[in-house]
Amino acid sequence: MRITERQVDGGSGEDYLKAMSAPAPHLPASDDLAVARRVLGIEAAALTSLAAAIDASFARAVDVLIGVTGRVIVSGMGKSHHVSTKIAATLSSTGTPAQFVHPAEASHGDLGMITPRDAVLVLSNSGETRELADLILHTRRQGIPLIGMASRPGSTLLRAADIALVLPPAEEACPMGLAPTTSTTMMLALGDALAVALMERRGFGREQYKVFHPGGSLGQALLTVRDLMHTGDEMPLVAESATMEEAVAAMSAKRFGCVGITDASGALAGILTDGDMRRRFGENLSGRPVGTVMTSGPKTIAPKALASEALAVLNRAQITALFVVDDPARPPLGLIHVHDCLKAGLS
Asked: How high is the pLDDT of residue 177?
């Protein structure tokens, strides 16, 4: 496209093109580091100020959001749009159903997504973003709770909102003070604070988190011992009174390289491994009760422990299997083998 008769800062279109194509001055690495430290310092100071500014409005916002029977609708325009999508994603993955609705699309039919069962969280640094008008009006007409997040207490958004989350005054890290930097950092952090507060109010823990994150490395990392353990007849178990021949037969049949030894109550009393057998090669163990040969007090793990924790125990102890025990006075619940962890993608 050819620019004709365009004046930029008193110059011609040609001047404009030359200015835009001129190589930027190259700053030494030391200057780059100074810029990075300055930006991070400005934003860190703003977050400290935000933490100090948190008041009862935040708690009221949590009360409203935790009572929602539909979804939390998060919306914003421009850079606030991108922050809003992240906040909606964080809420959804931590137990609070949420979705992003674009304010411009809302004005062209997407308001139908927002119902009286929902609550709306709107982000706008100035609080005067005109594209938000129809969305705000919809919440007022339908009696839908509106939480506004902005930096100007007297702005249209915060005056219309049921709950105002006011961002404290802070300079943008952009040297011109124009590009949203510090302001979006504060929005993102305040969104995280809402998500975590809701998460803790709900008692949302690892088990629920795993349900929402079944795929990829995160899903693998959240696997528990209970998810992988062998149970029931799969476990190699014999009584203390069993002979060594019976213990070796049970060990060979189950192919875990070990056999658990139980006392009269069924609780785990000890373990016998193929390594134990090799170390005692040459001894006459025939006919002896396995209880006189076993290793007492074997290492165990709880069923609710992460599978990654089990793998760490196996590696530290240089063993290949752990019996799973919830109560030492009761029978073992299962057995987890190092191969189970490796097959699940843990390493």
From this structure: 72
